[in-house]
Write a structure and sequence with these properties.
A 9-stranded mixed sheet has the order 2-1-3-4-11-10-9-6-7, sandwiched between helices. The chain has a two-stranded antiparallel ribbon with strand order 5-8. It is globular, with a radius of gyration of 16 Å. Helix content is about 30%, strand content about 20%. The chain has helices spanning about 15-30, 40-50, 80-95, 105-115, 150-155, 215-230; strands at about 5-10, 35, 55, 100-105, 120, 140-145, 160-165, 170, 180-185, 190-195, 200-205. By secondary structure, it is α/β, with parallel strands linked by helices. Strand 10 (about 190-195) and strand 11 (about 200-205) form a beta hairpin. Bound molecules: manganese (II) ion. Manganese (II) ion binds near residues 131, 142, 167, 190 and 205.
């Protein structure tokens, strides 16, 4: 059986199509099929997601700070209202099923907000590493330390790994129920996962842009899809 992975619709312009293709090719390499979930009708989106074997929350616009009780700062990007409304509903419906969830970039930030955490609205003035480094999205920009006794460490191993970095926001206060699984050289949370869940794993970087040639990055998708077969 081919596991079907639901992914919230990211958009259809040329740039989004390119970004979407990287998630899709990483999942197809892992043996899964992709179902893009349209979000305008939230009830229909929830129903579609529940038909899938796994859920991937992809990258995208900054989460609206009102979702974590803050006023937007000038550095905060324009929110994607449709995704900000629908994606928490998808999580609410999907989490109790225990089916696997992989959250990437905006995905892990949204997961943290869903669990009651907050975000740094802009890290450009407090970072030491370069975290918004689009030109090195295929090569990697900084390393992350993987924390022991996490699901992420079971997938990636103990050694620090080089990751790419396409973000200007980061997890600030961690939501209750989450565990930190990876930390950047300059101390930002780059991985978080749900404690009491079989496989709800989030990373701040974009493994889909390195997975075609870095086995550890592809392993994230392979283990996610393997968990969807259980
Ligand atoms: Mn980073």
């Amino acid at each position: 059986m081919t596991p079907v992975i639901g992914i919230p619709q990211m958009g259809t312009d040329l740039f989004r199509k390119y970004m979407k293709s990287k998630y899709a090719s990483s999942l197809v390499r892992a043996g899964a099929a992709v179902r893009w979930i349209e979000l305008e009708d939230v009830d229909a989106a929830v129903a579609a997601a529940l038909e899938c074997d796994g859920l991937l929350l992809p990258g995208g616009a900054d989460v609206d700070p009102c979702l974590y009780g803050q006023e937007p700062k000038p550095e905060c990007g324009k929110p994607n209202v449709i995704r900000d409304v629908a994606e928490p509903k998808l999580l609410e419906a999907f989490l109790p099923t225990g089916k696997p969830i992989l959250a990437i970039c905006r995905g892990v930030q949204l997961l943290n907000v869903y669990f009651g955490g907050t975000l740094h609205q802009d890290i450009s003035k407090i970072q030491v590493c370069k975290h918004a480094d689009f030109l090195k999205k295929n090569k990697g920009s900084h390393t992350v330390k993987i924390l022991p006794r996490t699901k992420l460490q079971k997938i990636l191993g103990c050694a620090p790994i080089l990751v790419n970095s396409l973000h200007h926001q980061a997890i600030d206060q961690l939501g209750p129920g989450l565990a930190v699984s990876a930390v950047s050289e300059d101390g930002f949370i780059e991985g978080a996962e749900v404690f009491l869940h079989p496989f709800c794993v989030g990373v701040q970087w974009h493994p889909e842009h390195m997975s075609n040639y870095v086995p550890a990055q592809q392993r994230l998708f392979n283990e996610f899809v393997a968990a969807c077969r259980l």
